[in-house]
Amino acid sequence: DFSLASVSHNLPSQHAYERLILDVDDPRRLWLQDYFEASLKCHRISYNSDEWCPAPLLNIVKICEVRNDAVNGVYLQELASIASSRQGHRQKVPELEQAICLRTHLQGPKLNEALLFHGCKWETVFSILREGFDSRLGGTNVGSAFGIGTYFSTVASKAD
After folding, report:
1. What is the pLDDT at residue 141?
2. Which residue stretches of the chain are H helix?
3. Model confidence over 3-27: pLDDT tens digits?
4. Residue 124 and residue 139 in contact, taking contact as beta carbons nearer than 8 Å
5. pTM value?
6. Average pLDDT of the chain to the nearest whole number
7. CA-CA 20 to 30 A from 106: which of 48, 55, 135, 144?
8. CA gap 130, 2 in Å, rounded
């Protein structure tokens, strides 16, 4: 399991988030780039399709660390709610077996936190950085094959 630090950075109120470009030799950047590139796979063109597309060839230009105290606070409140709903670790989700498992609180229960990929249009990125994900808007841009919600994948090339 990996742990993500949830440190408050007390950003000035005029900035919703802080974005830091990771240096090319930063171990976090190198690890994320390797993880991302390893997840680029061939996959079906669409749900239930017999047609497959090749794994994409990408040139990663930069990787950023994003900090948003407001979104992080909402996430921590949700984690606390999940943890207090019942004691102990949560049952593993089979669909997340290929994901990197995370734990915000190393001493707390395993709550099925995972490092996953989300695809969206470029113009949507900055509203997600400012406000976080809004499941009520899920599927409004590219459809909702499994219902309204926010979709994530263990495979970066499927999150397009």
Report:
1. 65
2. 27-38, 69-85, 122-131
3. 344 444 454 445 689 999 999 999 9
4. no
5. 0.77
6. 84
7. 135
8. 25
Report residue 59 as tokens. Answer: 């040139």
Of 158, 155, 151, 149, the closest CA to residue 46 belongs to: 158
What type of residue is 43?
H
User: 139 — alpha (psi -120 to 50), left (phi > 0) or beta?
Assistant: left
Helix, strand, coil share (%) of the chain residues, nearest 5: 30, 15, 55
CA distance 116 to 109: 20
**What is the model's pLDDT at position 6?**
43
Return the number of other C-beta atoms located less than 10 Å from residue 106's C-beta: 8
Q: DSSP letter string over 105-139?
A: STTS----EEE-B----HHHHHHHHHH---GGGTT
To which H or E segment does residue 102 belong? strand 100-103
CA–CA separation, 3 vs 49, rounded Å?
Answer: 37
Residue type, 70: A
Question: Which among 15, 35, 49, 30 is positioned nearest to 126, based on CA atoms?
Answer: 15
